[in-house]
Write a structure and sequence with these properties.
The chain is built from 16 helices and two strands. It is mainly α. Among the domains are: about 80 residues, no CATH class; about 80 residues. Strand 1 and strand 2 form a beta hairpin.
């Protein structure tokens, strides 16, 4: 019987066309939806393979998707409706059969009261015999009486008030497929608007920036949208379950919930973990300005310098810096609140080596000017001198960096041995 089946599970299973209908007991429709969708998609795939034309597979995929949408809307209508007349008749017969078996078992002395009245009868409990029919236990098989559990208020049972019905909970889960709508349905305006703004606002901004700049790399950040969608959906499901149990719900935005992790007027650990994705941002949020700024300079500076100089040999440094910054930020967030954080820069003796850093920056600047301004204008005949010299110049710079780094390590190791 459908009353014992999960509506949410039926919708999840219907991701495969027809499978949700099969779970709901609609076998004919399940077969038709599955056969039509898979058949059309299979025909389009075979035609595309045979003719080397992708247009047929696109058309058939669109038709299969349309059938899936029809199947999903049909299932939504089925689970939202009450039981059909045939299902009600089956439930009525099952209820009658169960009640008859219970009476026969009691009459045969199942409770060791053979030969005497059952303690569940009204006479044995001292209750008068002039009770109305609907007050008698087991009188649900009277003509015209519905075969469902007796309603509240007719003397059969008492239970706690239902704060959030199952149909409302199911409708909330259904609306939560759009981030924020489930929260708005439960009356959580701030939380719902936060999810709507985060999901659709981020999508709009990324599409605008991509269209304005023409850089398709910004579309990589669309990978954040599934995270927001899944988080919003599970958050709505958990809140609906809490409301069904009668727990009071507090309406607060996403940022306010992250700030719940604060200790007094301190920083939010959740925000610190989120900012750890950007090297140095989490450190600067926690007040470690020197350490955070150096992480940012090393990460973004290395990307820019390696791209300008064309030194693909050192590209392994970029993920290395990111992972080091990320796990260092996790450690700093874990220490926050339990011990004092120390703003130790990555290069402890930066002041002492400021001269060498300045020399390196000047050399890189001269190389960039020489590469982009001087040499493009220096031509002899029909060929450019820089075209011939440029590969050797890059190799020379890489070799000098490796040799200089090796001498620096040897010098430091000798100094440590002397100490």
């Amino acid at each position: 019987m459908n009353r014992q089946r999960s509506k949410f599970a039926a919708l999840l299973l219907n991701v495969v066309p027809g499978l949700g209908h099969l779970y709901w007991g609609r076998r004919v429709r399940s077969f038709l939806y599955f056969l039509s969708a898979s058949g059309i998609f299979g025909i389009g795939l075979l035609v595309a393979i045979d003719s080397y034309d992708n247009e047929s597979i696109l058309i058939c995929s669109g038709l299969a998707f349309f059938i899936w949408c029809v199947s999903m809307f049909d299932l939504v209508g089925a689970v939202m409706r009450g039981p059909t007349k045939q299902e009600e008749q089956q439930m009525r017969e099952a209820y009658y059969a169960q009640s008859r078996r219970m009476r026969e078992t009691q009459a045969q002395g199942y409770y060791d009261y053979a030969g005497g009245p059952s303690p569940r009868s009204a006479e044995s409990m001292g209750i008068g015999e002039d009770l109305p029919p609907h007050m008698e236990f087991g009188a649900d098989d009277l003509s015209g009486y519905p075969p469902y559990p007796p309603p509240i208020g007719q003397g059969h049972m008492l239970r706690e008030p239902e704060y959030f019905s199952d149909s409302q909970r199911f409708f909330t889960i259904l609306l939560s497929f759009v981030p924020g709508l489930g929260h708005l349905y439960m009356g959580l305006m701030l939380r719902g608007i936060s999810f709507l703004a985060a999901f659709f606002g981020l999508a709009t901004v990324l599409l605008f920036i991509t269209g304005f700049t023409g850089e398709e790399t910004f579309l990589l950040f669309l990978g954040v949208l599934p995270v927001i969608w899944i988080y919003g959906m599970f958050d709505a499901v958990l809140l609906a379950e809490r409301k069904r149990r009668g727990e009071p719900l507090r309406d607060f935005s996403l940022i306010e919930k992250w700030d719940i992790g604060r200790e007094g007027s301190g920083k939010s650990r959740t925000m610190g973990l989120l900012l750890a994705i950007v090297p140095g941002a989490s450190h600067m949020y926690l007040g470690l300005m020197k350490r955070g700024s150096q992480f940012m300079i090393f990460f973004f500076g290395s990307i820019y310098v390696l791209d300008v100089l064309g030194m693909s040999l050192f590209l392994f440094l970029v993920p290395l810096i990111w992972f080091y910054s990320f796990f260092d930020a996790l450690q700093q967030v874990g220490r926050y609140g339990s011990e004092a954080l120390q703003d130790r820069p990555l290069i402890a003796n930066f002041e002492a080596n400021r001269t060498w850093v300045g020399v390196v920056l000047v050399l890189l600047g001269l190389y960039y000017v020489f590469n982009t301004i001087v040499m493009p204008g220096t031509r002899i005949g029909s060929w450019s001198i820089w075209v011939e010299i440029k590969p050797y110049t890059r190799n020379a710079i890489v070799a000098l960096l490796l040799i200089g780094g090796g001498f620096k390590l040897l010098k430091d190791s000798k100094a440590s041995k002397i100490e």
